[in-house]
Amino acid sequence: MKSLDQQHVLSIKDLNRYIRMKMESDTRLSDVWIRGEISNFTHHSSGHMYFTLKDEGSRIRAIMFSAHNQRLPFIPKEGSRVIARGNVSVYERDGQYQFYAVHMQPDGIGSLYLAYEQLKKKLEEEGFFATERKRPLPLFPRTVGVITSPTGAAVRDIMITIKRRFPQVRVILYPVLVQGKGAAPSIVKAIRSMNEMAEADVLIVGRGGGSLEELWAFNEEIVARAVYQSDIPIISAVGHETDFTIADFVADLRAATPTAAAELAVPSAAEVKSRLMQRERQLHQGLQQTLRRSKERLSSLQRSPVLVYPRRYMLQHAERLDMLKIRLQGSVRSHISRTRQKQLSLKQGLIRLNPQVQFELATRRHDGAHRQLTAAMQSLMREKLQHLQSEMRHLDALSPLKVMSRGYSLVYDEKDNKLIKSLSDVQLGDLVNVKVSDGRLQCQVWGMKEDDNHGE
């Protein structure tokens, strides 16, 4: 017996993971379509759908995560036959392979659902489903138009509900085909005719429940455009609560059932009567309370001393009026006095600011200033003259001419007119000018003799 190689022993988890990787790498199993019937269906609170797909020979566990099932155009149910697309893999914990669905449609009508989705996307892009274009329904319609089959259960439910809730309203039934080849044109003609008649305040367009093929007339583009172009608000009531058609999205309001459409179209007369009676009671109670409060206030006023002893209060007010009159007179006199004082002050100010007065004042100031300036100038002149005479006497005492009048003279060089102060300033033969007290002498140097005491 060969020894066991521990390296080739796998754990269950490793084995399941290996099988999962093998299955996920298989191109055939990574994108596969399967057909089967739904059983053991569970829509978990997390949003995920857990179910089993089975056929006559076998079954497989399946799961569809919420990210994918939110886009489903229908609600899967127990026993529904479907075609699903997805991949096959292994759930490692349990070691079971299962189908992971990413898309699902009812078996046998895949082409209809494809056409439904394409038209829905097209009309949504054109704004047919926009909330802002939807109109409110009239609260109390006088006439309700009903467009449906005259023989189905839907018309009976609508008529009975309307008459029960609001018997005063008028109902116009426009019979149409609701399934088959001619149903869509019949519905379109009815909507347009009701708009041309312009008698109905609201329209109910619908039929009872059925399969997708039976409801298909309400998924036709011509019906959707007729609903969109209607001037009269439209309530769509097609099929059951779980059935959605293109007309439901375009209509101003969708009703889950034809009976619900009738309830939405008209108010309940009993409820309206009840509300009116309640309002009447509230109004009556309000009037009673107002009347009671008014009586109490009147009684209180009648007991008021003002009404019981009016003369007393009149005298008090008369006395107060006299005091106010005295105060007013005093205030007026005070105001008049202040006003007069202010006027006098302003008048005096205007007089002071009078150009003639200002000119006279300026003239007087000018004359005074002129006299002061003249006196000051004369005083300054006398002072300056005395100073000048003193300086002249002093200058005269220091003048060389004064010295020369006593027998002295000044000798100048004839050429440069420079004062000769020494023998060195001249030479024999030079011409000199001798300045004496009464003129000049032009002389020539014939001889020079230096003093004996020179330099002592």
Layout of SSEs?
Layout: H1 12-24, H2 27-30, E1 32-43, E2 49-54, E3 59-64, H3 66-69, E4 81-91, E5 96-106, H4 110-125, E6 143-148, H5 153-165, E7 170-175, H6 183-197, E8 202-207, H7 221-229, E9 234-238, H8 246-250, E10 253-254, H9 258-265, H10 269-302, H11 305-308, H12 310-352, H13 355-398, H14 400-404, E11 410-413, E12 431-436, E13 439-444
Parallel strand pairs: 3-5, 6-7, 6-8, 8-9, 9-10
Antiparallel strand pairs: 1-2, 1-4, 2-3, 4-5, 11-12, 12-13
Give a written overview of the molecule:
The structure is a single chain. The strands form 3 sheets. The chain has a 5-stranded mixed barrel. α5 (153-165) runs parallel beside α9 (258-265) and α6 packs parallel to α7 (221-229). The longest helix has 44 residues, at 355-398. The mean pLDDT is 86. The chain has helices spanning 12-24, 27-30, 66-69, 110-125, 153-165, 183-197, 221-229, 246-250, 258-265, 269-302, 305-308, 310-352, 355-398, 400-404, and strands spanning 32-43, 49-54, 59-64, 81-91, 96-106, 143-148, 170-175, 202-207, 234-238, 253-254, 410-413, 431-436, 439-444. α8 links the parallel β9 (234-238) and β10. It is 48% helix and 19% strand.
What's the shape?
elongated
Number of helices: 14
CATH hierarchy, class of one domain: Alpha Beta
Helical fraction: 40-55%
Span of the ends, CA to CA: 164 Å
CATH topology of one domain: Rossmann fold
Strand percent estimate: 15-25%
Classify the secondary structure makeup into a structural class.
alpha/beta
CATH superfamily of one domain: Hypothetical protein af1403, domain 2
What radius of gyration results from the CA coordinates? 66 Å
The low-confidence parts are none
Strand order of the largest sheet: 1-2-3-5-4
CATH architecture classification name of one domain = 3-Layer(aba) Sandwich
Order of helices and strands: HHEEEHEEHEHEHEHEHEHHHHHHEEE
Main beta sheet, described? Answer: 5 strands, mixed, barrel
Give the beta-strand count. 13
Mean pLDDT: 86
